[in-house]
Amino acid sequence: MSDYTKPSYESPLNSRYASKEMQFIFSPDKKFRTWRLLWIALAEAEKELGLDITDEQIQALKDHKEEIDYEDAAKEEKERRHDVMAHVHSYGKQVAYSGADRIIHLGATSCYVGDNTDIIVMRDALTLIRKRLVVTISNLSKFVDEYKAMPTLGFTHFQPAQLVTVGKRASLWLQDLVFDLEAVESCIASLKLLGCKGTTGTQASFMELFDGDNEKCVALDKKICEKMGFEASYYVSGQTYSRKVDYMVLSALAGIAQSAHKFSNDIRLLQHLKEIEEPFEKNQIGSSAMAYKRNPMRSERIASLSRYVMADIMNPAMTAAEQWFERTLDDSANKRISVPEAFLAIDAILGIYTNIVSNMVVYPKMIEKHIMDELPFMMTENIMMEATKKGGNRQDLHEKIRQLSMQAGSVVKNDGKPNDLLERIAKDPEFGLSMDELMAIADPKLYIGRCPQQVEAFLTEVINPILASHEDDLKVEEVELKV
Q1: Known active-site residue 287
Q2: Residue 1 has pLDDT above 50, yes or no
Q3: For residues 20 and 25, what is the distance between their CA atoms, to the nearest angstrom?
């Protein structure tokens, strides 16, 4: 059945935006397969710590870990109204021949599989986001390096200011992504499993199973962490891990959204100025009514999705604040929506971001035109210094150049004519400067300060080490840009 003819709602994050890789990470199949891995880890750890669990039972669990009967699990859930117990019973039927049905989920509560899986899934999703970030950083750094010395008109308050370079401006986008990468890596490093903490976080059920042996309860958590690829579990918890963890993770994602939104704003403004454009495919249609238009649709999509993520962060914030004592279930429905959708949206955003920076179109002549419209005003200090060398009075020259600047500005604004300040100065004998002398100091590269050197240092000392340390992340396949 085509996506266009499905009779039910489907999230555009799946059908239009996010990659297949991210969709799988948050899929039911990934979740339920992880549940089974956690049940196997629990059984193995309990056996290693002396509980009466056989090798045959564990082997049966392993033999059937991939054979999830989703139809049977759905029937069980309809009857039992409990998703975890539905899968416990469905899995149990498959391994009953070994007696393993008796030891599945032994001593655990639902959050053992639910919360531990959530942590595992978020770590996997953050790992994919890290790859997306590194690829975006790599592609953007190439653009930054290529254009590090190309002068362009700088803006403050979107009013013409001193010159910068195209690459230096892009290095600001790049630096934001570096901050985001640091936040994502910090999240990955800080994530811990819930472990096996029981219904109120006391491990009382495991104290019972191990006849009050405190050390075995501690060892159980450690063994499960080791088997699931984590260094540690949280020392204390209620029934769930603290929902502040979700907030911290989504904070890192919201940071990426902020950076991407700022980038998309700049690209849209630059495209309006006709200086830089996002990619535009041969048969792409910019407007259904105005055939000539090349709308910055990709940047607009980044802005749109970014706003969603920045608003979405309020969900885990409120959820963490609303939890009562050892747990309430008003987190569940919200978590199922807010956390996956934030990841799916950021996955899409970074895919679009990479696509844009890998194929941006620069128009040097338009950039030069805009520079020369404003450069005469920016040259005034240099002009006064040259005129002073020829015997002029600095204060008198300052007043004169102020008057001429006002006249030239009036011609630009009121008559729509080019900036003629240099011509006016060349004609004024008080300056004693010819047009050739003025043009000699009209080279835009004289007004870009340390832009090239700043960019070179940033790339050498910050970006190159990042890319070298994330070489494997650069092997990620190119993300297909969806509609």
Answers
A1: yes
A2: no
A3: 9
